[in-house]
Design a protein that fits this description.
heterodimer; A: alpha/beta; 2 domains; ten-stranded mixed sheet; nine-stranded mixed sheet; 10 helices; about 25% helix; about 40% strand; globular; B: alpha/beta; Rossmann fold; six-stranded mixed sheet; four-stranded antiparallel sheet; binds adenosine-5'-triphosphate; binds magnesium ion
Chain lengths: ~450, ~250
């Protein structure tokens, strides 16, 4: 294993010290897991670009920074006011008053006065640190995330301090989306590790929209992990809207385990802003007749680096996975897409589709897109396609021949390209909101 | 209005237009007919500014302006409109937004204020009626999934909206059913005025029953080889092109 060792990253040392303190104080059910995870992290170390999984994404700048590691435990009135203003400004046109429930976390701490917590019967919501002693938590926590091979997930598992736990009971359909707003306010460099767990019991349905709001003057490194459990016939639409300050660095791993007839749809949309983003999304189709959708859009600008790594594990027959990732790479930004599909020996009659389309919008923009299929069953339908290109010339000519200038024509086409993914969003208010964001971004070009 | 002199143009180093001359005055309708592969669409492309065509000789002016120097969008803003033989589908770009953008860019170029939403809507309704263009299609993605005839009608709808000086219709009649042909022709006839001109590229004299041309030209092997009145179209219908191309 090639990794960046302690010597190269003082962060490694300070994390280890922080961990020692944290584990001494820890009294809850996560202690053994944290200990195991820290061992895994120590073994793995931070990955270097010699590690195949990180070939195009150099984390050195991220781990070279020294961050404040102590997690916040309280928030003050000033922070609440600031968050309130940010929320009002940013999401004015997103959800109407009663259209969605809302969870606001400021530096990982829940802000009750700004939240409108879900109150539906059969829907349980709590901060992760409050959840550790519940059976519904312990049955699933730490059982899905692969920490053996993923340094950041291991680190998160050892040291996470905040996050949310959402559980939906059997047969409960939660129609109102829950909007989880992660507000990050900081004047100093800071590292935050949050951990979420979503558990949907049989026939349960849930819609969650996660998004970021940042007011930060120094680098903030968010190392996040989430586990998702879908029991038989459960349905989860999981949205992640990544638009934040250039100082924000996100490395996250979301891992879902699905039971039969369940349907998990993940939407990861990254917009200009956050300087460094690495999303790892892994789905385990552990039973028969499962459906999974992975939609991604990365509209990158400035000197952003946005990396999406996906894994779809088809383990049992008749699973269907459908993956569409689209990228528009502008300015000097850099995008990476790596999509792995594994079809295990037993997974006959699997349908697995993957499409990754990329448009380079400037000469300095770069993209590395790579599909990776490993198929061990013989009766399967798999297809994948990767395109990297410029905009369709014929279409551009058509638009120009009607009097539309070169730039405007390009904008129209880019919007069209991106809307193709945006239109998969099932919540109309969110879809409109995302389309407006894309439009606004393109208008500034 | 339009003056084409000794126009030579090639595509991928192959000469397609070989010394073409054409004069079109305001208020006139010219029909261009000719065998497949003669260069009719190429002429339209050169006028509209398609990039892969290289003009090697000759001049094209529109009301005295050398349009060969202009980018395609500026030609459109100067009043050139090409109704494409094969309109392209652009998924995701809504027909109406596209038109609004086009219209306002053209207006800005001409120093006119952009239309208000209301004015635009009104005009769009009016023109939809004129060419009997289905309101449902107006809000769809540009040409996406349109039938052949619907695409052609959309071209004429755009033409009606943009009111160009010079409109070039490349086989707009092909693929139209009898009713659509009548509707499109009626639309074009209503749009005709003393200030604009039309070039109709067609294979069928039938269109010319509806839109009566002032001149009919035969384009063969990159040149206009014969010019006549509307009766020439009838003669061509009867005799084909052989008698003209075999010397
Ligand atoms: N991109 C290109 N590369 C090579 N040859 C081309 C290209 N575009 C057009 N041509 C050639 O130019 C010639 C003229 O084509 P054009 O489309 O102008 O004919 P046309 O008169 O419009 O024919 P039709 O009646 O069939 O529409 C043809 O021989 C055609 O194959
Ligand atoms: Mg043609």
């Amino acid at each position: 294993m090639t990794s960046i060792k302690q010597l190269e990253s003082p962060l490694f040392e300070s994390l280890a010290a922080q961990y020692d303190m944290l584990i001494l104080q820890n009294q809850d059910s996560t202690k053994a897991y944290r200990t195991e995870a820290m061992e895994a992290f120590r073994k793995l170390g931070f990955p270097s670009i010699k590690n195949e999984e990180w070939r195009f994404t150099n984390i050195l700048p991220v781990v070279k920074t020294s961050y404040e590691l102590t997690a916040a435990t309280t928030i003050d009135a000033e922070q609440i006011n600031k968050a309130k203003a940010l929320i009002e400004n940013t999401y004015r046109n997103l959800f109407a008053e009663d259209e969605a429930d809302r969870v606001v976390l400021i530096n990982g701490v829940i802000a009750d006065s700004l939240s409108k917590l879900p109150e539906q019967k059969g829907l349980h919501f709590s901060e992760i640190k409050e959840a550790t002693e519940q059976a519904g938590f312990q049955d699933h926590f730490g059982k899905i995330l692969n920490i053996k091979d993923n340094a950041f997930a291991a680190l998160n598992s050892a040291m996470f301090q905040d996050g949310v736990f959402i559980a939906v009971e059997k047969n409960v359909v939660v129609e109102k989306p829950i909007h989880v707003i992660k507000v990050i306010l900081s004047g100093q460099a800071m590292m935050q590790q949050s951990r979420d767990l979503f558990v949907l019991d049989q026939n349960a349905e849930l819609n969650v929209v996660e998004s970021y709001l940042t007011d930060i003057a120094q680098p903030v490194f968010l190392n996040a992990a989430a586990e998702v459990v879908l029991a038989e016939n459960a349905k989860f639409n999981h949205y992640d809207l990544q638009k934040a300050d250039a100082h924000l660095r996100i490395i996250q791993r979301t891992e879902a385990a699905q039971q039969k007839h369940s349907n998990y749809s993940n939407y990861t949309f990254t917009l200009p802003g956050a300087g460094f983003v690495r999303n790892n999304l892994a789905l385990h189709l552990n039973d028969v007749d499962i459906e999974s959708h992975l939609y991604g859009l990365y509209l990158t600008a400035d000197s952003q680096l946005v990396d999406n790594h996906t894994e779809v594990h088809h383990k049992m027959p008749r699973g269907e996975s459908n993956q569409l990732y689209k990228g528009i790479i502008m300015d000097k930004s850099k995008a990476v897409f790596n999509g792995k599909i594994f079809v295990y020996e037993d997974a006959q009659k699997t349908n697995a589709f993957q499409q990754s389309n990329n448009v380079l919008f400037s000469e300095q923009a770069t993209v590395n897109a790579k599909p990776q299929l490993e198929i061990f069953a013989d009766d399967v339908k798999c297809s994948h396609g990767t395109t990297i290109g410029q905009l369709n010339k014929e279409a551009l000519f058509y638009l120009k021949s009607r009097g539309i200038g070169e730039n405007q024509a390009k904008q129209l086409m880019v919007k069209a390209f991106a809307f193709d993914v945006a239109e998969k969003i099932k919540i109309p208010a969110l879809k409109n909101y995302v389309e407006t964001l894309i439009e606004a971004e393109m208008e500034n070009r | 209005m339009l003056s084409i002199k000794n126009l030579h143009a090639s595509v991928e180093d192959k000469e397609i237009l070989k010394g073409l001359n054409l004069e079109v005055k305001a208020g006139e309708v010219h029909a261009i007919m000719g065998p497949n592969g003669a260069g009719k669409s190429s002429l339209a492309s050169v006028l509209a500014g398609r990039e892969n065509y290289e003009v090697t000789e000759g001049t094209v002016t529109l009301d005295g302006t050398d349009i060969l120097e202009l980018a395609p969008e500026d030609r459109a803003r100067e009043g050139v409109f090409l109704a494409f033989q094969y309109p392209i589908e652009i998924p995701g770009v809504s027909n109406i937004n596209f038109l609004k953008t086009a219209m306002n860019e053209i207006r800005t170029y001409r120093g006119e204020a952009p239309l208000t939403a209301k004015e635009f809507l009104q005009r769009s309704r009016e023109k939809q009626e004129l060419v009997e263009f289905d309101a449902k299609l107006v809000n769809r993605s540009l040409n996406e999934g349109f039938s052949g005839g619907e695409k052609k009608r959309n071209e004429i709808f755009q033409l009606a909206m943009l009111e160009p000086k010079l409109a070039i219709l490349d086989e707009t009649d092909s693929g139209l059913d009898i009713d659509a042909l009548r509707i499109v022709s009626r639309g074009v006839n209503k749009l005709r005025s003393e200030n604009n001109a039309f070039i109709l590229i067609t294979h069928y004299q039938r269109l010319l029953d509806y839109i009566v041309p002032d001149f009919v030209h035969v384009l063969a092997d990159g040149k206009i080889i014969k010019t006549g009145g509307k009766e020439l179209a009838l003669e061509l219908e009867e005799k084909g092109y052989d008698w003209l191309t075999k010397n």
